Amino acid sequence: MTTLVVVSGGIREPSSTRLLADQIAAAVRTELARANSPATSSVIELRQLGRAIMDAMLSGVPSTELEAVFQQLSEADGLIAVTPAFNASFSGLFKLFFDVLPEETLSEMPVLIAATGGTERHSLVLEHALRPMFSYLHAVVSPTGVYAATADFGSPTGLTQRINQAADDFSRLLQACGTRRRRDVFTEEISEMTRLLSSTKPGDAYDPSEPAG
Amino acid sequence: MSGMQFGIFTVGDVTNDPTTGTAPSEAERIKASVCIALKAEEVGLDVFATGEHHNPPFVPSSPTTLLGYIAARTRRLILSTATTLITTNDPVKIAEDFSVLQHLSEGRVDVMLGRGNTGPVYPWFGQDIRAAVPLTVEHYTLLRRLWREEVVDWEGQYRTALHGFTLVPRPLDGIPPFVWHGSIRTPEIAELAAYFGDGFFANHIFWPSSHTQRLVQLYRQRFEHYGHGSADQAIVGLGGQVFMRRNSQDAVREFRPYFDHAPVYGNGPSMEEFTSQTPLTVGSPQQVIDRTLGFREYAGDYQRQLFLIDHAGLPVKTVLEQLDLLGEEVVPVLRKEFQIGRPAQVPDAPTHESLVAGQQQ
Questions:
Q1: Which residues of B touch A188 (CB under 8 A)?
Q2: Which domain CATH number covers A143?
Q3: Chain A contact for B358, CB < 8 A?
Q4: Which residue is closest to A186 within chain B, CA to CA?
Q5: Which of A94, A122, A191, B324 could bridge across to A117 with cysteines, CB 3.0–4.6 Å?
Q6: CA distance A95 to A33
Q7: CA–CA separation, A135 vs A81, rounded Å?
Q8: Residue B198: other Cβ atoms inside 10 A
Q9: All domains of chain B, ordered by start, with CATH?
């Protein structure tokens, strides 16, 4: 069973960002089911975590609720990330969430990027803002993202077709990537220290079996 | 002073008192630190530890100068740091400074090493923050040799070579100061402390306790792995942060403006959220006792408990009142309670005397 997590940065209720997120998630599940690789998806609504995300940024201490969300995301096989386009970029809240997310959580994770906006003139926000950020976070970003302008929700503009195309690409990416190798920074850091300590030059070496003080 | 040690650690920040809008001068802050340390001894605490900082708004840039002055005016108090920067200080100078302090204080000194988390301090002292971890290992292995070997021949990557170098003065009674390694959140430091069988101090106060538990467990396992003893014999210290009044509602009311404007977490989570997520306790002495005794449940029986009580612009008079409460009502109970059920094989907190005795065996 493939576990998908959807991060929705929508602010209003109801939210067109959430609507797009749900449509994409459903399309991806359908594609995966067709490929005999059934999937479940759960949604993280950033609005509900707004204060916790800001508090974590300011104090360095994530709330219990936020830690649970970090855990949920770290255990996912794939991420569908959807943000409203604000001022030629992702929303501040969307960025802040990924800024407080523990390092390497998204490492090697397939990600489908999507955004909503008032008009289609903002569609390159996918390529100029979302794709570079997720690449930087060592995610594997699916080649096809989805951008939905307000007008797309009320006219036969091919949004469904674009969602299906992106879902098809993403499901093939998920299957090709296989089971995700999760990075464990905690263990990696210990191993690095163990390596450094064991490679201290002769003479520097200290017999670690000497009893402690 | 058997069993556990209790004390305070200070950051040494010069911060506006949010209730008056005024900050002490640097001179006043330094003298307040001395005053707080003397009071700590007077009320029966065991340890005073100072931070090390090289930028405003902090004053303790030269910890051994401060500790030397306090040593001259105390008789019993153990002087320590939280932390001494092993990355950006020359290990030769650390060895020299602490050797002199050890002689002057007649052994009442230990040191807590840390990497430091203020980026620009690295370039200011000619180091590269990207090399912080290998730098820590190189500097610390050199420091150990300086304290243990009469004549040191050494070559490394980050410091000029030493040939035929002898540290003076030699450590008091041939015993180097006990070393703690302080960590806020990095597991590497737990591994380093475990490898050498040194003490591990978890800062504890800026992180959910589940993470502190994981760090301490790691240190204990690795301590055993490296053959220094069983996991419950590893030497653990924890930070804590308290504000007390006899009536807990008074404590909450008085501390809130300081919490809300504190440089580290101010304008972020509410005091109630922060107290539930971290060891911060704002309330009565009994609440502090209960909370502190709870640390043992996830850290195991440990050796040193340090409290942060003098930050965020709290007036020195208030801090001294906190020390009175710690000394009169909290620490005597903690000493007694922590002793109950403490397995016999769990070591007491290390002191110069215990290290000398250990050497003679």
A1: none
A2: 3.40.50.360
A3: yes
A4: B187
A5: A122
A6: 31
A7: 13
A8: 25
A9: 5-360 (3.20.20.30)
Residues of the domain holding A10: 2-183
Residue B81, preceding peptide bond in cis (omega within 30° of 0):
no
Note the pTM of the prediction, 2 decimals: 0.93
Query: Which 8-state DSSP code applies to residue B8?
Result: E
Tokens of B189: 């430091």
CB contact under 8 A, B268 and A200: no
Q: Which amino acid is at B205?
A: I
- Number of domains comprising chain A: 1
Give the pLDDT confidence of B56-99 residue by residue, as tens digits: 999 999 999 999 999 999 999 999 999 999 999 999 999 999 99
Nearest chain B Cα distance for residue A100, angstroms = 14
The string of DSSP letters for A38-56 reads -EEEEEEEGGGGHHHHHHH
Residue A202 inside a domain? The answer is no
Write the DSSP assignment of B269-315 as a string of letters: S-HHHHHHHSS-EEE-HHHHHHHHHHHHHHH-S-SEEEEE-S-TT--
pLDDT in tens, B261-306: 998 888 889 999 999 989 999 999 999 999 999 999 999 999 999 9
Contact B7, B46 (CB under 8 A): yes
pLDDT for res A201:
53
pLDDT at A88: 93
Q: What is the pLDDT of residue B263?
A: 85
Largest CA distance in chain B: 62
- Substitution target in A64, A184, A190, A195 with the highest count of B β-carbons within 10 Å is A190
DSSP letter, residue B177: P
